[in-house]
Design a protein that fits this description.
4-stranded antiparallel beta sheet; alpha+beta; 3-stranded antiparallel beta sheet; elongated
């Protein structure tokens, strides 16, 4: 009971890409259900009969018993055509879902340790599914499927030495023989479905045993899985997905005609239908056969047909060998054998792997398009020979170009993302600097896609296959990366936490103090006094106290004007002037000039005690950048908005600035005198 309870509570991550495998699973279930129903009416025989069914255009024509039973299912059995077309559509969806599911696993790196065996099983499932589809596609014995069997027999004959023996073994006689349909039928309903069900079962058992992969994010690591439990949440959503797959397949079977065998007619070895095209999953073999030049070689009385052997035997063997070996090769080259990888990579984080995957997809797409070069040439009135040469060149050039472009795009996306995390996302507002220039405003990034990092990645830091967790921060860095709430909220001004000047008073190891400016603007380095002077601590402390008092006074003056929306903008200017007057030149950050054409906001908080501190020291913080968003001033109404108390406060402020300047001058003079005396 305890083991069953743990199984029911197994977590499954929530993301649409994880549903691709379930679509393949439910397509297989639908294939089994419709296939069992079709076996009640299909006759896998190649004996000739005369058709006497309901389809009038084919009455009186000799055909095989298999083709006759297919017409009987389509026109005489109630609902037979719907079920047969649902079966065909489910087969196409099944192979497509396996292919897209494997692409997801490839691009996210979900094939790495300990899932190499599951990857091998997935590739084997793809091969068996394609073979199963081709066997079922050939059973009706119509002209189109018979042409496909003829091509398959030619591929068998291209095998050196053993080609004729293989052909006789498969067909039982000279082509077409009378045994191929019964043999394909046995493979289609017994051998291949049994292998599919067995491998799918092993695949699901490994998924449960090894736990599901997930995207990186807060709270996710290699040791846990964050998602919905198997029962009841995941089971309910998965059941809904199964009904969706069944419903969509039923709509396709009822509305989209596929494989109308009555149009092609029965198979005859002396006839070939124009524009014959196989199902899409074997279309790349058709295209490869059309692109290879007619190369042949005679060796010791044997003819090697390179134009068939290379595209139909060697090429598929190489493609699937690469698929089987890729997980082991990548882990060997990247030294990722050491540990397990349960977190998915984003494609942009692995530009080489993503480029190789896109190059392989483009290679397959070129072959698939080449399989219909005759139809394309006829439809667009293009020379068939010219189009064939275009596809030959594209087969070599297009994958390389796709690899280079994809790798460049991945790196560009990664760089743009790091820039966005470092600078923040644009807010759409522009501010004016004290020098008269303009700069775009940014705000912290708050929305992240699955697997995206939450902070900028360091130069030597890797963010592939590891959890996206916040690193341990030093105490004095806590305020630098996290905007702090304002102690006093001012109406009419918006505080911007990115461009802030934090002044830290730090006690050094030798008992001296240093005054420096800290914040997101690293170029605003503070003044660090050289050791050796006996009064350097007193000078820095005096300057700091004067500045602190002046900032407190400027904040008080500004708050006295906050009753009117127009005065808050003027108070911000006062704060900026005071800070610029008392801040050393090398420690002074860029101060934003208020923009009088904005809307409402808040900011310009007073000097306050910060939670960050150095060893044995204390820290104060003051903010020097705002995005003022007050209504534009009307020159005709400015004078009427200010009372005598306003002008009295301005006069008092001017007196205070003059006193601060006098004290700073006395301090500088005392410093010069002490230096001369020394």
């Amino acid at each position: 009971m305890a083991g069953g309870g743990r199984l029911l509570r197994k977590a499954f991550p929530e993301h649409w890409s994880f549903l691709l495998g379930e679509i393949a699973l439910y397509s297989l279930v639908l294939l089994i259900l419709t296939g069992v129903w079709l076996t009640f009416f299909f006759a896998p025989e190649m004996s000739e009969v005369v058709y006497q069914g309901r389809y009038v255009p084919l009455r009186g024509i000799r055909m095989s018993r298999a083709f006759d039973s297919t017409l009987h299912i389509s026109f005489d059995v109630r609902g037979g055509l719907l079920v047969r077309q649902m079966h065909h559509w489910a087969a196409l969806v099944f192979v497509a879902a396996i292919g897209v599911h494997m692409l997801r696993i490839f691009f996210t790196g979900a094939f790495r340790r300990p899932r190499e065996l599951n990857w091998v099983i997935g590739v084997t499932l793809l091969v068996i599914a394609m073979s199963e589809g081709f066997a079922g596609y050939s059973l009706p014995d119509d002209l189109l499927s018979g042409t496909g069997l003829r091509i398959a027999q030619g591929i068998m004959l291209s095998l050196p030495v053993v080609g004729t023996y293989v052909s006789m073994f498969v067909f039982g006689a000279q082509f077409p023989g009378e045994d191929i349909v019964p043999r394909l039928y046995a493979m289609h309903i017994l051998l291949l479905p049994g292998l599919l069900i067995a491998l799918v079962t092993v695949h699901l058992m490994l998924v449960f045993q090894l736990k599901h992969t997930q995207w990186r994010g807060p709270g996710r690591s290699n040791r846990n899985v964050v998602g919905k439990p198997l029962f009841p949440q995941f089971m309910v959503s998965s059941t809904g997905l199964s009904f969706t797959v069944f419903g969509v397949t039923a709509l396709l079977g009822g509305l989209a005609q596929i494989n109308p065998v009555w149009v092609y007619g029965p198979y005859r070895p002396d006839q070939v239908s124009t524009g014959s095209q196989p199902d899409w999953y074997v279309g790349f073999l058709e295209g490869a056969l059309r692109l290879v030049p007619p190369w042949e070689t005679n060796v010791a009385g044997h003819t090697l047909m390179w134009n068939v052997l290379l595209p139909a035997v060697v090429l598929p063997g190489l493609l699937f060998s690469v698929l089987y070996a890729y997980p082991f090769a990548e882990q060997r080259l990247t030294d990722e054998w050491s540990g397990e990888r349960h977190l998915c990579d984003r494609p942009r984080d692995r530009p080489v792997r993503t480029g190789l995957g896109v190059a392989g997809t483009v290679f397959y797409a070129v072959l698939l398009l080449a399989g219909g070069n005759d139809i394309m040439a006829f439809s667009f009135r293009i020379s068939l020979n010219a189009l064939t040469w275009i596809f030959r060149i594209a087969l070599v050039v297009a994958p390389v170009v796709a690899l280079l472009i994809t790798r460049w795009l991945c790196r560009a996306l990664a760089e743009a993302e790091q820039k966005r995390l470092t600078r923040g996302q644009e807010s759409g507002e522009v501010r004016q600097t004290v020098e008269g220039g303009y700069a775009s405003d940014h705000r912290p990034v708050t929305s992240f896609r699955p697997g995206a990092p939450r902070r900028p990645i360091g130069p030597g830091e890797s963010h592939t296959g590891t959890a996206s967790q916040e690193p341990p921060r030093r105490p004095h860095d806590a305020d630098e990366e996290r905007p702090q709430p304002m102690d006093h909220a001012w109406p009419g001004v918006v505080h911007r936490a990115h461009d802030c000047d934090r002044v830290h008073r730090t006690a050094t190891a030798g008992g001296r103090t240093s005054l420096r400016s800290r914040g997101t603007r690293k170029e605003g380095a503070g003044r660090n006094y050289r050791p050796g002077s006996s009064d350097e601590a007193a000078r820095s402390a005096s300057r700091f106290l004067i500045r602190a008092v002046s900032l407190r006074t400027s904040a008080w003056v500004a708050r006295s004007f906050s009753s009117h929306s127009g005065r808050s903008c003027f108070s911000v200017s006062i704060c900026s002037v005071v800070r610029a007057s008392v801040t050393p030149a090398r420690a002074r950050p860029e101060i934003d000039t208020p923009s009088f054409a904005a809307t409402t906001g808040r900011g310009c908080g007073p000097l306050r005690r910060s939670s960050s501190s150095h060893a044995g020291g204390s820290a104060w913080s003051s903010f020097s950048s705002w995005r003022v968003t007050t209504p534009s001033w009307n020159s005709a109404g400015v004078a009427g908005r200010y009372t005598p108390s306003f002008f009295a406060a301005v006069a008092g402020f001017i007196v205070w600035v003059v006193w601060c300047d006098f004290m700073l001058s006395r301090l500088s003079a005392a410093h010069e005198t002490s230096d001369h005396a020394g």
